[in-house]
């Protein structure tokens, strides 16, 4: 009987460990088990190179949301990013800036929001007008090489 109790205890411990690993992997991957209360914002960028769906949206280094969709705006021929921002961050002024940033030198792309100074705040479905597109390393190297060739 003691041996059977020990086996059940070990089995429950293993099951708890597997569930903990499952929850940890869901959090790391950006998938969520529960759905937080959010609102949608849109931003238009000339170049969205490297940004993907489920990329994080940060303000002052704190994750405040995620990218839910990326598509092409057929009227302006720019990339449109749909973001879901946590409802408790309802303090973004209308003149805030959205930039596509890189974590580290060659890390993942994410959107960083810089706060403006207006008193009016963004609401569900609003557009962030001031944006800075992604910096593409290949373009930067090409410009550097072209300038160094032109100097000679």
Protein described:
This protein is an alpha/beta fold and 152 residues long. It is built from 2 helices and 8 strands. It has an 8-stranded mixed beta sheet with strand order 7-1-4-3-2-6-5-8, with no helix packed on it. The N and C termini lie far apart (87 Å).
Write the layout of secondary structure elements.
Elements: H1 2-29, E1 38-45, E2 56-59, E3 62-73, E4 78-86, E5 97-102, E6 109-114, E7 126-128, E8 130-132, H2 137-151
Parallel strand pairs: 1-7, 2-6, 5-8
Antiparallel strand pairs: 1-4, 2-3, 3-4, 5-6
Relevant terms:
152 residues, 8-stranded mixed beta sheet, alpha/beta
Measured by DSSP, the beta-strand proportion falls in 25-35%
Largest sheet: 8 strands, mixed
Strand order of the largest sheet: 7-1-4-3-2-6-5-8
Integer-rounded radius of gyration: 22 Å
Uncertain runs are none
Mean pLDDT: 87
* Quaternary state of the chains: single chain
The count of β-strands is: 8
Helix content: 25-40%
Structural class, judged by helices and strands? alpha/beta
What is the helix tally? 2
The helix/strand order is HEEEEEEEEH
Shape: extended
Question: Whole-Å distance between the termini?
Answer: 87 Å
What is this structure, in a nutshell?
The chain has 152 residues and is an alpha/beta fold. The protein is 28% helix and 34% strand.
């Amino acid at each position: 009987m003691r041996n059977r109790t020990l086996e059940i205890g070990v089995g429950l411990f293993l099951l708890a460990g597997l569930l903990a690993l499952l929850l940890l992997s869901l959090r790391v991957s950006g998938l969520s088990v529960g759905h937080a209360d959010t609102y949608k914002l849109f931003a238009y960028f000339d170049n969205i190179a490297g940004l993907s769906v489920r990329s994080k949206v940060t303000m002052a280094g704190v994750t405040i949301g995620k990218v839910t969709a990326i598509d092409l705006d057929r009227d302006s021929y720019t990339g449109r990013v749909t973001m879901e921002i946590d409802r408790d961050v309802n303090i973004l002024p209308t003149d805030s800036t959205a930039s596509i940033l890189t974590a580290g030198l060659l890390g993942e792309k994410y959107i960083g929001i810089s706060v403006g100074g207006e008193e009016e705040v963004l609401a569900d479905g609003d557009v962030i007008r001031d944006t800075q597109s992604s910096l593409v390393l290949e373009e930067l190297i090409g410009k550097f090489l072209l300038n160094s060739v032109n100097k000679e």
